[in-house]
Amino acid sequence: MKADIEIGTDAHGTPVLVDVEELLATRLLVQGNSGSGKSHLLRRLLEQSAGLVQQVIIDPEGDFVSLADHFDHVVVEGASYSPREIEALAGRIRQHRASVVLALEDLEVEQQIRCAAQFLTALFDAPREHWYPALVVVDEAQMFAPSAAGEMAEDTRRMTLSAMTNLMCRGRKRGLAGIVATQRLAKLAKNVAAEASNFLMGRTFLDIDMQRAADLLGMDRKQAERIRDLQRGHFLGLGPAVSRRPVAVHIGEVKTGGKNAAAALTPLPQADAAAMGELLHADLAEEAAEKVHQPPPPPPPAPPPVEALAESMAARAEPQESLSREVATGDVDSVLAEMAAEDGSTFRPASTLFRDFATRCRQQGVASAHIDMPTFRRLFAFASAGVGLLEGSQRERVEEMAQGVADDVLAPYLAIVVSAARGSGTPDEDHLARVYGTASPGRIRRLLEHLEKTGLISVHEDFGGDRTITVPGIEDVLA
Questions:
Q1: For the range 220-225, what are the long-range contacts, defined as Cβ-Cβ under 8 Å and sequence gap of 24 or more?
Q2: Could you tell me if 61 and 105 are in contact, meaning their C-beta atoms sit under 8 angstroms apart?
Q3: Are strands 467-470 and 458-461 parallel, antiparallel or unpaired?
Q4: Would you say the C-alpha torsion 454, 456, 461, 466 has a positive or negative sign?
Q5: CA-CA distance, 77 to 105, in Å (whole number)?
Q6: What would you measure as the largest C-alpha separation in the chain, in angstroms?
Q7: Is-above-0.70 flag for pTM?
Q8: Which of 304, 305, 306 is nearest to 91 (CA)?
Q9: CB-based contact 233:239 (threshold 8 Å)
Q10: Parallel, antiparallel, or unpaired for β 73-77 and 4-9?
Q11: Residue ranges per structural domain of the chain
């Protein structure tokens, strides 16, 4: 089968074609500085080949979700699913040959990397009967295959490098053709870049990236200067799927668009300095004097169930036997209580605790995709303060009292409320310090002063140094 798509024209206006079948066997590397037109090139390639081959896009910035508006792509919001669900979806994507966009923009960088790595690994590990051909596009590939460890955890780096290496080195036999795009070749792991046989090089300025690009294109140092002079949307192409000799390509038009801010100038507001100053300072004092404790944000909307996405994928594919994998459920409270009971747990960073929580939920079969970082921080504060020890009505009242309390002081405040509700009197500084995650008595004193100033507690200290803490509203809990 011969399937050529047009990605643009050369300097003479002649169409430049890409052989999709050859591309599946030889992979593609796209490089160019920010603003050189990489995303536009990828979008053109995806749009032109949408009806020919399955497409899977790893999208860290949400730039390609608009493909779903014009083509049969399913958008998978990575932040809405647990690791187990992401792996299950990847298996179904290969089975049903669905074209998908894995949108990761709502995740922190390290969580983006882990999510993409698990997703790619599950694609790679699909059963042999599901090894259908697919283009796997990874934008910002230097994030997922870094040449140096940087600031990410070592286990995360090993996981993502393994996934990207499998995609580029061993994916061909499984039908997976990697297309990786990067801003800087120097930041991309060499063993990942080296597996591509096709190249499209855009504008770049740093000497080290220019030289690597020139080496890949078979150009000498003097010819490499051409790469610096390329205009936006112009690339130098080479490879068995593109051209046997370096060819200059002006990328063609696209139907869909990204959500990047416009680079063109827009008119400034017509206001003089006095009017603008008044606008900037209007109600500034009131805004700055907002209550310290804002109510927690509403819970995030429930993610679309895995089954719904699976049915959508199956509807777009040829009828095949459906794959049923149930997502196990369990008790989140028991996982949180187990973590809170461990020595030193409150001294660990919130991000580390959150990763540990997600790991334990996976191990125990507990569904936790609906719990994001802010929700976890509040739930962990409840667990570490011992709210679970209260009876039903008491617990409900304590939860109501905690609604307007900020996350950073929620745990010690709840510890005071729980102690009062159980008739244990005022908790000592050691207990508050453990719940608050500090070893500094001074911080505890400042904490109590802060809670008193905001009206959450009332502190009375006699001349002998004995301290009594009263909590407004505690009568309703004791009633």
A1: none
A2: yes
A3: antiparallel
A4: negative
A5: 8
A6: 93
A7: no
A8: 306
A9: no
A10: unpaired
A11: 4-251, 330-478
Pairwise CA distance, residues 233 & 324, whole Å: 44
User: According to the model, what pLDDT value does residue 322 have?
Assistant: 36
Q: Which of 139, 143, 144 has its CA nearest to residue 103?
A: 139
The yes/no answer on whether domain 4-251 falls in CATH 3.60.15.10 is: no
Give the type of residue at 461: E
Specify the pairing of strand 15-19 against strand 176-182: unpaired
Structure tokens at 95: 């089975």
Please name which of 128, 143, 223 lies closest in space to residue 181, comparing C-alpha atoms. 143
pLDDT, block means (10 residues), the chain with 479 residues: 83 90 91 85 92 92 88 89 90 93 90 93 92 93 83 84 91 92 84 86 74 69 69 87 88 80 66 83 73 54 61 56 35 86 85 84 79 86 85 81 84 85 80 83 82 82 66 71
Three-state SS sequence of the chain? CCCEEEEEECCCCCEEEEEHHHHHHHCEEEECCCCCCHHHHHHHHHHHHCCCCEEEEEECCCCCCCHHHHCCEEEEEHHHCCHHHHHHHHHHHHHHCCEEEEECCCCCHHHHHHHHHHHHHHHHCCCHHHCCCEEEEECCHHHHCECCCCCCCHHHHHHHHHHHHHHHHHCHHHCEEEEEEECCHHHECHHHHCCCCEEEECCCCCHHHHHHHHHHHCCCCCCCHHHHCCCCCEEEEEECCCEEEEEEEEECCCCCCCCCCCCCCCCCCCCCHHHHHHHHHCCHHHHHCCCCCCCCCCCCCCCCCHHHHHHHHHHHCCCCCCCCCCCCCCCHHHHHHHHHCCCCHHHCCHHHHHHHHHHHHHHHCCCCCCCCHHHHHHHHHHHHHCHHHCCHHHHHHHHHHCCCCCHHHHHHHHHHHHHHHCCCCCCCHHHHHHHHCCCCHHHHHHHHHHHHHCCCCEEEECCCCCEEEECCCHHHHHC
Long-range contacts of 213-222 (CB under 8 A, 24+ apart): 213/31, 213/185, 216/29, 216/185, 217/246, 218/246, 219/246
